[in-house]
């Protein structure tokens, strides 16, 4: 596969749109809080406590709501998504159950984590980026397939980087799709997609002073590569 480096087109968001998004995020925060209280009550219910299966489902819901709440807080308070030292091994291992749950039973998940140094970024934002990439991979593999996430140490242009690769064996993308995937609101999933997953991943990578590469071939699959600077 030949590496492709899609260029996102600059987009000017009019103030009215920005205001309405801020309002929407604020209201989402309220609903998340209500759902979290409901899940917390549910987790203490005798039927849930007695059932291993139900307990796990409620725990997934609580974990996702906590992440959603933290992201909503991060949108108005940049300190909530502050960069920290992140151990990739711990970060990915922590995400294992969530990835398995999100991808469903027909997708094999492989995690390969080499001996890599810590990186400096927001752990929550990194996990959110990886979840978005895993969901895209799942959508690209409607029958069966394999999602592989690997982390290794690589040489960067100036300093060492951690290379995180999210690879799928899905439908892949034609060049005319690939060159547009970083545009906000670009989606090929009508009624389902918002075209905000990959722009969010780009935002995270740029904020972390990293680099983003996407390779794809129709019928073969897609690899999204995040190169993130090693914490010094
Ligand atoms: N792994 C992949 N395999 C094939 N196509 C992909 C893959 N990842 C992204 N795409 C293409 O890029 C488009 C944009 O992806 P993006 O994640 O930004 O938005 P989306 O998945 O459509 O919607 P959402 O906002 O819910 O994430 C997708 O609609 C799809 O056409
Ligand atoms: Mg997506």
TrEMBL record:
- Domain Histidine kinase, by residue range, is 23-232
- Protein name as annotated: histidine kinase
Classification via PANTHER family:
SENSOR HISTIDINE KINASE, TWO-COMPONENT SENSOR PPRA
Q: Which domain of life is it from?
A: Bacteria
Give the catalytic activity: ATP + protein L-histidine = ADP + protein N-phospho-L-histidine
Question: What EC identifiers does the entry list?
Answer: 2.7.13.3
Q: Which organism is it from?
A: Devosia nitrariae
The record ties this protein, via SMART domains, to: HATPase_c
Say which enzyme class the record assigns.
transferase
């Amino acid at each position: 596969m030949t590496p492709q480096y899609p260029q996102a087109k600059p987009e000017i968001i009019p103030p009215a749109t920005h205001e309405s998004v801020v309002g929407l995020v604020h209201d989402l925060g309220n609903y998340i809080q209500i759902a979290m209280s409901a899940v917390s009550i549910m987790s203490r219910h005798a039927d849930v406590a007695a059932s291993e299966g139900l307990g796990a489902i409620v725990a997934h819901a609580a974990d996702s709501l906590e992440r959603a709440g933290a992201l909503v807080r991060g949108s108005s308070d940049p300190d909530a998504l502050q960069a920290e030292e992140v151990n990739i091994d711990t970060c990915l291992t922590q995400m294992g159950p969530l990835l398995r749950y999100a991808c469903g039973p027909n997708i094999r998940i492989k995690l390969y984590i080499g001996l890599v140094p810590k990186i400096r970024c927001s752990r929550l934002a990194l996990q959110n980026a990886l979840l978005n990439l895993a969901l895209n991979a799942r959508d690209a593999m409607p029958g069966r397939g394999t999602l592989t996430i690997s982390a290794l140490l690589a040489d960067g242009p100036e300093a060492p980087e951690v290379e995180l690769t999210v690879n799928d064996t899905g439908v892949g993308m034609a060049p005319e799709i690939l060159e547009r995937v970083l545009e906000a609101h670009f989606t090929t999933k009508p009624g389902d997609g918002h075209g905000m997953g990959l722009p969010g991943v780009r935002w995270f990578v740029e904020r972390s002073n990293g680099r983003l590469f996407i390779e794809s071939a129709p019928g073969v699959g897609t690899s999204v590569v995040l190169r993130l600077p090693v914490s010094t």
